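Pipeline run #58 for the internal structure catalog. This entry was flagged by the ingest filter as a single-chain record with no existing model, so it goes straight to prediction. Upstream metadata was stripped on purpose; only the residue string is passed forward. Reviewer on rotation: M.T. Logging verbosity set to normal.
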Amino acid sequence: MGSIITAAFKKVTDIQPEMLKKMGIQGLILDLDNTLTTHDNPVPGDGVIEWLELMKKSNIKLMIVSNNHPPRVRPFADMLGLEFVSEGRKPLTKGFREAAKKMGLPKKRMAAVGDQIYTDVLGAILFGVKMLYVKPIEQESTTFFKVKRKCEKPFLPKKYFDKQEKSND
């Protein structure tokens, strides 16, 4: 039996179009907070804008699916020129279903990208798409997230793809 996570990356910008093509992936369902930027930050993380442009030039469809409310998601998505689903209710499949419909792709041609086991990874499993896990950009400081991250630890990937070394701890 294969891993629940298709591939793991240190950061979202390590995901390359050539890899996606080899996996048959034509569309990415992107998490927002701690994947594309830090929590509540209106500005994308380092290299994210260039990475999104590379994906678009490579004909990879992109869509943000976030559990956040529209006032958080809409300005960020609009700035990046991306469609989005807010209040996605991950790990439930509502947001994934909406994204798949908007992208017009079959599940086997899509992958979810995110940093949380109990929302992004579990949601990808329940919806039946590949999962590209990324390390969180930063560790959250709230008690809720500290407890959640501690509970995620046993399920985290042991190896991460590294552009320079191919695979690295």
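catalog note: The chain has a mean pLDDT of 91.
catalog note: Residues 64 and 87 are 11 Å apart (CA to CA).
status: ready for reviewer M.T.
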